[in-house]
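Thread title: Can someone regenerate the structure for this chain?

I was given the following input by a collaborator and told the matching structure tokens would be attached. They weren't. Posting the sequence so someone can regenerate them.
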Amino acid sequence: MTNPVPTLSFVIPCYNEEAALPALLDAQRALSPRNYEAGRIAGPAEIMLVDDGSKDRTWAKIEAARDSHGATGLRLSRNQGHQAALLAGLLNARADVTISMDADLQDDPSVVEEMLDRYLEGADIVFGVRAARHTDTAFKRLTARGYYRLLTAMGVDIIPDHADFRLMSAKTIAALDSFKERNLFLRGLVRQIGFQSATVTYDRAERVAGESKYPLGKMLALAIEGVTSFSIKPLRLIAGLGFLVAGLSLCYAIYSLVVWSMGATVPGWASIVLPIYILGGVHMIALGVIGEYIGKIYLETKARPRFIVDEITRPEEAAKDAAPMQIAAE
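Best answer:
Regenerated them for you:
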């Protein structure tokens, strides 16, 4: 089953991307005519730039892009994080299909054509997957592979080397909106939606300008979010570890009784202090994991909004403001 020629929106979260926006907008300007002439889209694409509480002149650049490039700007009331900013853009896009990508042009814009082809062939979700990690450091390659293996081992349905570069149809975004959780890990949530999907591969480029907005701390936080949002295996591992420690303790108790019955001296300091330290460490880890899940429950039960939109500025508003005032004849 094929899909009709769609209208298209781009959703691009921006946080302190003042330096990257000119190159991004120039790259976006070339996409619409090329895909329209090829019959992949039904009209000019909407470019939605989501300002996630930037501290530089990102919003001023976005407002200027409304007039110069016909871009739509969405401004959040404060910094809510990349995932919330991305979701805000997806839910406010107005086209048949929406492609999400980063503002730094590391997601190859030329792959958009292949994504649209997969949609026209019948796919409702098209995932952009990195073909290789040649541009990453050895440490990042090693940790990324370990992370995806960990998620898979924990039972999380995720596509390795896929970030947030994807195409989604309007009905899949509507389905995504039905997931009301505040702890957002869209890479996992989108896989939960279902529908027909496809993948395209691309080579991730270097940032066109600025610095990465995902330092090691944020990457670790996202990794923990991914595991705890979609798997309870850590809790089951704790239970298994508890049974293992209890079994070992029982064996040691039997050993102590046997040695005592034979009149031998039961080992003293080491046999007492070492188990205390080991058990203390295990207990702290277990409490930390349990606390992480309880914290997520606490955040969910308060049902606070995932994001608050400050304002949305669209090209048609600029055209309306620029229209001459009509004065009625007396």
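Residues 143 and 239 are 27 Å apart (CA to CA).
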